[in-house]
């Protein structure tokens, strides 16, 4: 007299396949989360670097027409553009654009600054 007292080989194999698929999905989710976290950290660093570059305009960088750029280290590169927009009564409104790039991802911050006409 034989009853259903254990698992068949087919049931064990099906459970193993389901467990393996679940493990793969969890692994991919974990790796994807870590990668997105690293990208977010790099993006935040690019924003801080671009903000710093904008803050230096008018204090460390003279407010005049300018196109400059270079390597910022650690995989980052920068560009700074200062373009006069409008002049009146000895004052000029400048459009200031700071671009910080890591890999192919740019962070672009812009502002306006008022300065004396060149």
In order across it, which strands form the biggest sheet? 1-2-3-4
Output the number of helix runs.
1
Structural class: alpha+beta
What characteristic shape results from the CA principal axes? rod-shaped
Strand content: 35-45%
Order of helices and strands: HEEEE
**E-strand count:** 4
Report on this model:
- With 118 residues, the chain is an alpha+beta fold.
- The chain has one domain (9-116).
- It has one helix spanning 9-56, and strands spanning 66-73, 76-88, 91-102, 105-116.
- The chain has a 4-stranded antiparallel beta sheet.
- It is rod-shaped and about 95 Å long.
Structural key phrases:
4 strands; 1 helix; single chain; alpha+beta; four-stranded antiparallel sheet; rod-shaped; 118 residues
Task: Summarize the topology.
Elements: H1 9-56, E1 66-73, E2 76-88, E3 91-102, E4 105-116
Antiparallel strand pairs: 1-2, 2-3, 3-4
Short description:
With 118 residues, this protein is of the alpha+beta class. It is built from one helix and four strands. A hairpin with a 2-residue loop joins β1 and β2 (76-88).
